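Supplementary Data S3. Sequence and structure tokens for construct A.
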Amino acid sequence: MTSIRSSLVATALLAALAGGAFAQAPAAPPSGQGQPGAHRGHRDPAQMQERFQRRMADLKQKLQLTPGQEGAWTEFTTQLQPQPRGPRMDRDAWARMTTPERIDRMRSLRAERMAQMDQRAEATKSFYATLTPEQKKTFDELGSRGMRRGGDHGQGHRHHAG
């Protein structure tokens, strides 16, 4: 009786663990359809750049920078340029990876994102240090509404209406 029970428990455990291995991922939607934000061009590098330029022009106008702050502004906007996402990993390549390889790949991607976020954070802090108290107040107000981001490129989830 004990060996039957042990066999059943072991079989159930193996089935639960192996279930993910047999699950098939859905086919990729054609040409960006079905991807969040795809209908608004959120992944299109040209549109990302256009949105970034508009936001930076708006920010610059509202901050009313002095000629002495132009160098810091240029460095700030250069560091915040939106970076297009690299190519997605092929589903077949992902499926061929072992679990430890997938974990390592996800850690590597996370480290890259964190390094980019750290770079933007330092650029923002450096620029912020050059602002007058009134400009800092304006920057903080705009930042609380999402203007401190350097464009829509994957830093968190932002939901838009429409």
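Construct B, processed identically:
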Amino acid sequence: MELNLATLAESDTKVLLIDLENYPKQINELPNILNEYHLVVICYAQSNARIPIDWLMPLNDTINKAQLKIFRMTNNGKNAADFGISFYAGMLMSQLPEHAHFVIMSDDQDLDHVVNLLKSQQRSAERLGMRCEQKPVALPSTESAVPHQVKDMVAPLVKLYCAHLITYKNNRPSKHTTLINSIKSKLGEHKAHAEAVLQRLIKAQALQLHDTKVQYFDKKIVEMTH
């Protein structure tokens, strides 16, 4: 893959690989995505996504700058786009600086294997899925059972933990059990405080739980620090 390495940041280089088959609506966010990432790679085999005509010029500029790469798989077999994502992730790992952060945007949990392989090579990587495909797991509400004096403490504790999530964006807990332990560790308080903070984050849609896994929503997390 031909890259314009001169355009990449000396630090905090961000690379996005989009599985268009499993995240088709993301094509509508392309103009914003190009501003957030130094390199965007899109892989697909069969897709009904259409790029608006008025995007053609700006997208052509980014393609010429080697900032955007779009690859259609030659075969339309099952998981064809996944193999493309895996291939280009490995290729980019060998070409980009060690500090580069890889984000794979897909609902396909099989791509977690790619994320784990990147991490095994001491690379920063994560997978982001869609927000509304799955219903969040409903946990028993504990906030209503928390004493009044504890409730009064929840707001500043939520703000504190949201700031922690922003600072350690690339190392967030990925499961419910590790998340609650992380909250307890950060707050240094009793279980009632940690559970109340978690429920407030869920209620505010700063995060969601899918089975045992955690999904974060950065925009809301940032808002809750103000």
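The first helix runs from residue 30 to 36. Strands lie at 14-19, 39-44, 68-72, 101-105, 124-128, 207-210, 213-216.
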